Write a sequence for this structure.
């Protein structure tokens, strides 16, 4: 017997609204379909109305977890357009926050993976230890979530010697805890039984579907913006790209835990080599006409911002390609051969940030499969038409 | 006098009142152990150290709106929680907690009560399946089928594991089995494999992690209970609590020598031994993640069932040569 079960838009496994429609036969999934657009906020349009400096804080709000990633990606591009070079101390502090953010994001993900696999003890432990890095971020920037440390031409806050000591202490604690998690992730029988072999994505498939981040690296592709197309800073520190070749959710877990260790390594090197000097330079208000593509390795994968300047104090166009969006096609393909029990794990394994990936409204006709991109006025007209006819058909069957 | 004794037995100890109070206490104990193992506090606010939290939960659920889905089979949907609770309460009466005198033991103690208790413990599983099925919700139906799939896995190992101590004691009557092991405490040791198997099988029967598959929150929302709310959900939760007490009592009776002595020592033993079993179950719940339903069946038939047969073989050999 085939029937459809809806995962989302509201579902305990999803922290944000997205709709996955699964056609199942017993426990086996035969078909999967993904629908986006429940969380569209019009960020790109809003960016065209705001000045360069205001846009940093707007970009920060694209995502709650990798807020610094979007802000840094934007700032990297904007600095090229404004033709300024941030001082080295500023750059070091900027990427210190980047790596701390990666640590907090991966610890958060480990907890979520534990919860999706029904292993709540793991969830509680990782989230307890995540508080350590959250506190460090708060000490550095003053905020726990939206750090607001970036500014055009550098960073806004400096660190002193006592804070440096505290960060090193915190990193030592986290390192010890992460080793323990590595042991659990790779050895706890019920956990491994749930992760190993789940959501297979071969190297070729990962290439074909343009997977990014830990998803691609777990399929044996050592692709990392920090190595392939790095900001100068990443050439000055030593680290490895963490990969795994098991091509499953276990591999994605292992890659993330390995990346934790690489991030600890980078943070320690930053704190050792931290140069003296100013933390920011003054930025001009207007950028010369031009365009730039800025790439940044967010915790979830490659983040791309495309910025066009037209000579005014505002960008003419900002296009954001969040890593989650790049991972959707591969996820759908993986889901099609899994069990229902594996859906939360497979979906969580891309570390989805749904609001990051919501860019334009594209409607797919449920019956014909025809796609249309709509303007706001069209949407309003359709909504009004529908509201008028609603009184006639109260029990409209979902999905309409 | 006999009638009064029976009424006392049914309503107070170990009947309805005791099972209600004690099962809420056991739920508190389980939650507290689970929380402490996870570095959390667990219930703290309601009553001393949160002791009244489970009762408060039930009272709150009782006051909530009770919704029956339009397309559900209303009679079955409504009757199931009551039937489920009645079944586990009946099973609770069979536990030999009142057997001061073996010859004139509790009103309900007879040769073969072990089998009846196992049967009564199988019924809640069917109740849960029907609950899922009669809800006519996609998540509930998947939950319901998962309940049955798991039943095929753990039921046979559980029966084999519980029957081997009975074979060694040479009786199908729980009071006599317990008395036998109190007389020969060393013979508890050969049954340890069976105790382990029974613990795992009981964990699966009670649908607790790693076997909380039928109501796996992140996969199928509420599973079997998705459509249940208010009083009916409260009854189901109470059913699960009482089932936990009865299952722990069963394991304590057949594997840990039961509850001997006069009234007070027997009561103390009952509390200590069932809490010990519940503690083991809580630890198991804290240190594992949820497995898949096909993994439950293969675990049960690849490991638990052969081990249970091995246990039976050990028991038969001991009985043949040593006794």
């Amino acid at each position: 017997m085939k029937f459809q079960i809806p995962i989302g838009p509201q579902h305990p496994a999803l922290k944000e609204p997205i709709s996955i429609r699964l056609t199942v036969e017993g426990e086996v999934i035969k078909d999967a379909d993904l629908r986006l657009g429940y969380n569209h906020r019009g960020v790109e349009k809003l960016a065209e109305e705001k000045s360069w400096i205001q846009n940093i804080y707007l970009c920060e709000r694209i995502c709650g977890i990798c807020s610094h990633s979007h802000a840094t990606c934007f700032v990297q591009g904007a600095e090229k357009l404004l033709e300024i070079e941030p001082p080295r101390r500023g750059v070091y502090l900027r990427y210190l926050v980047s790596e701390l953010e990666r640590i907090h994001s991966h610890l958060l993900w480990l907890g979520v993976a534990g919860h999706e696999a029904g292993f709540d003890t793991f969830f509680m432990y990782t989230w307890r230890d995540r508080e350590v890095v959250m506190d460090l971020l708060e000490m550095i920037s003053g905020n726990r979530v939206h750090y607001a440390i970036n500014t055009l031409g550098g960073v806004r806050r400096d660190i002193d010697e006592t804070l440096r000591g505290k960060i090193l202490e915190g990193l030592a604690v986290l390192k010890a805890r992460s080793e323990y998690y590595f042991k659990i992730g790779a050895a706890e029988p019920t956990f491994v039984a749930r992760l190993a072999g789940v959501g297979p994505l071969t190297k070729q498939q990962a290439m074909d579907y343009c997977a990014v981040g830990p998803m691609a690296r777990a399929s044996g592709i050592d692709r990392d913006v920090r190595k392939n197309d790095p900001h100068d800073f990443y050439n000055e520190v030593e680290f490895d790209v963490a990969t795994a070749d098991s091509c499953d959710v276990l591999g994605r877990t292992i890659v993330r835990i390995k990346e934790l260790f690489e991030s600890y390594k980078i943070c320690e090197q930053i704190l050792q080599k931290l140069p003296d000097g100013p933390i920011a330079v003054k930025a001009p208000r207007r950028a010369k006409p031009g365009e730039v593509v800025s790439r940044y390795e967010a915790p979830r994968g490659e983040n791309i911002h495309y910025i066009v300047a037209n000579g005014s104090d505002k960008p003419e166009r900002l296009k954001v390609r969040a890593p989650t969006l790049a991972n959707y096609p591969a996820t759908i393909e993986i889901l099609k051969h899994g069990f229902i029990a594996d859906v939360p794990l497979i979906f969580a394994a891309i570390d989805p940030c749904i609001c990051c990936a919501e860019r334009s409204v594209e409607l797919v006709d449920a019956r014909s499969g025809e796609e249309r991109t709509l303007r706001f006025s069209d949407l309003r007209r359709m909504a009004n038409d529908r509201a008028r006819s609603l009184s006639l058909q109260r029990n409209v069957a979902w999905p309409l | 006098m006999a009638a009064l004794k029976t009424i006392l037995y049914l309503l107070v100890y170990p009947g309805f009142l005791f099972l209600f109070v004690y099962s809420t206490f056991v739920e508190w104990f389980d939650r507290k152990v689970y929380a402490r193992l996870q570095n959390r506090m667990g219930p703290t606010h309601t009553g001393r150290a949160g002791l009244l939290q489970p009762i408060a939960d039930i009272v709150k659920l009782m006051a909530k709106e009770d919704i029956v889905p339009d397309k559900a089979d209303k009679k079955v949907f409504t009757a199931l929680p009551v039937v489920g609770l009645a079944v586990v309460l009946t099973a609770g009466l069979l536990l030999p907690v009142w057997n001061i005198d073996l010859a004139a033991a509790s009103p309900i103690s007879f040769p073969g009560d072990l089998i009846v208790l196992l049967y009564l413990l199988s019924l809640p599983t069917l109740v849960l399946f029907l609950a899922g099925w009669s809800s006519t919700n996609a998540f509930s139906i998947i939950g319901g089928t998962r309940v049955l799939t798991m039943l095929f896995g753990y039921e046979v190992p559980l029966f084999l594991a519980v029957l081997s101590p009975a074979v060694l004691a040479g009786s199908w009557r729980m009071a006599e089995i317990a008395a036998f092991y109190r007389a020969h405490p060393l013979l508890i040791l050969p049954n340890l494999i069976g105790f382990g198997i029974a613990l795992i099988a009981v964990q699966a029967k009670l649908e607790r992690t790693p076997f909380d598959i039928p109501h796996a929150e992140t996969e199928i929302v509420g599973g079997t209970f998705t459509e249940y709310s208010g009083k009916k959900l409260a009854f189901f939760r109470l059913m699960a609590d009482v089932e936990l007490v009865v299952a722990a009592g069963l394991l304590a009776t057949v594997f840990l020598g039961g509850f001997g002595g006069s009234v007070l020592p027997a009561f103390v033993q009952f509390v200590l031994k069932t809490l010990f079993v519940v503690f083991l179950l809580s630890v198991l719940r804290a240190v594992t993640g949820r497995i898949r339903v096909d993994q439950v069946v293969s675990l049960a038939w690849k490991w638990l069932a052969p081990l249970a047969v091995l246990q039976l073989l050990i028991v038969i050999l001991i009985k043949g040569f040593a006794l």
